[in-house]
């Protein structure tokens, strides 16, 4: 048993070290990301599980030799690291308060609280009191072109709309697994959420993903009132590849090549909230030959060397314009999949050009995809997103 405690302690220490300093090498990038992501956002759960395992092994004779005591020491060091991880997560409250101070809201008005029970028991996130979800509504002819609608259970006046775009490197992902905590919270506070599936690569190539999402906006304009939503008020949000596509939706309203056959449809959005998005595809490709090969072959369908203009047109950083709607850009400081420098640069350049508000929020100690389930950090960020969107609605920023 001493060696079991040693192995347990070393594992606890290594996972914590990876959460504090995530691995970025090619071989460890993906496993390092998943391990760090889960350890960071589920740190209290990890601590409890490790404490139970350590107590069981120690009680069974794990401290009978030097190896066991070494394992216990490694475990305690790992717990000290987890304390740092949790302290960083707590700083989210300060970050959200800082960006909320810039909003056009009554300083004394309290933000609607995210359910504490969902943070303690993340599996509860698929259900929210006062919210009705309608699944798998067709907005196009293809089987993949389906969306879910989240809305308040109680009828009311025409409500503002928000569209969620899932991520997954343009090749995987689904509305069934992303954006759920945010859409439930917004619906519980008077919004109508639309969670969209779109066709994925390699079956289709860019810009088909973007065209599908503009078709979803067309559906919203035509059917919003059936679900109690305002057809003239729609915001957009998304993470990772979804953040990339959400930013493009906000920056390319009415571009004919992205609206074939429905060029006259109004595809403007009132605001964009992008999480850990890809804003410059060329810059991302420069950082990874493996990713560049997959992106060129499966997503873009053309090599960058052969058509560099296609990559610029597909990058939000190259579509910035003065008519951009208000943006809230959120990124984790420890993101190993999309470097935080992309978000910093995009926010800075957008502020220089856009006439609308541009807010940037960097989550200290957060990895990619931190908002998939309702951790403490996720809850505070979602509360802040609700405040941002509410301020946009009340201020009536033109589009």
UniProtKB/TrEMBL annotation:
Q: Could you tell me what this protein is called?
A: Alpha/beta hydrolase
Q: Which domain of life is it from?
A: Bacteria
The UniProt keyword set, sorted, is: Hydrolase, Membrane, Transmembrane, Transmembrane helix
Q: Where are the transmembrane segments?
A: 67-87
* Source species of the chain: Actinoallomurus vinaceus
Entry keyword Phosphoprotein:
no
Please state every residue range assigned to the domain named BD-FAE-like. 147-350
Q: Name one GO molecular function term.
A: hydrolase activity
């Amino acid at each position: 048993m001493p060696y079991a405690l040693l192995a347990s302690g070393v594992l606890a220490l290594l996972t914590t070290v990876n959460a504090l300093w995530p691995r970025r090498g090619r071989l460890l990038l993906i496993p390092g990301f998943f391990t760090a992501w889960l350890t960071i956002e589920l740190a209290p759960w990890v601590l409890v599980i490790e404490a139970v395992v350590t107590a069981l092994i120690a009680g069974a004779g794990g401290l009978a030799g030097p190896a066991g005591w070494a394992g216990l020491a490694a475990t305690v060091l790992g717990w000290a690291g987890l304390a740092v991880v949790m302290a960083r997560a707590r700083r989210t409250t300060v970050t959200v308060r800082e960006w909320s101070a810039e909003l056009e809201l009554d300083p004394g008005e309290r933000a609607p609280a995210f359910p504490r029970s969902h943070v303690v028991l993340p599996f509860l996130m698929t259900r929210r009191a006062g919210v009705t979800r309608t699944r798998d509504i067709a907005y196009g002819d293809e089987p993949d072109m389906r969306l879910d609608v989240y809305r308040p259970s109680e009828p009311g006046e025409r409500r503002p709309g928000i569209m969620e775009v899932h991520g997954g490197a343009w090749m995987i992902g689904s509305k069934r697994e992303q954006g759920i905590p945010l859409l439930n919270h917004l619906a519980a506070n008077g919004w109508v959420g639309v969670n969209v599936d779109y066709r994925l690569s390699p079956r289709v190539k860019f810009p088909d993903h973007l065209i599908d999402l503009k078709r979803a906006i067309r559906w919203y304009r035509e059917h919003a009132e059936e679900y109690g939503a305002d057809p003239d008020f729609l915001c957009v949000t998304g993470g990772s590849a979804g953040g990339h596509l959400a930013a493009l939706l906000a920056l390319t309203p009415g571009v004919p090549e992205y609206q074939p056959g429905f060029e006259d449809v109004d595809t403007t959005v009132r605001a964009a909230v992008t999480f850990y998005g890809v804003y410059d595809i060329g810059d991302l490709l420069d950082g990874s030959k493996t990713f560049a090969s997959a992106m060129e072959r499966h997503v873009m369908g053309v090599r960058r060397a052969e058509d560099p203009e296609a990559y610029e047109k597909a990058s939000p950083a190259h579509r910035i314009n003065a008519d951009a709607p208000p943006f809230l850009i959120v990124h984790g400081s420890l993101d190993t999949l999309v470097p935080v420098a992309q978000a910093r640069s995009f926010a800075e350049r957008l502020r220089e050009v856009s006439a609308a508000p541009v807010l940037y929020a960097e989550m200290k100690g957060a990895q990619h995809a931190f908002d998939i389930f309702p951790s403490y950090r996720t809850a505070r960020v979602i509360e802040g997103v609700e405040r941002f969107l509410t301020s946009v609605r009340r201020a009536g920023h033109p589009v």
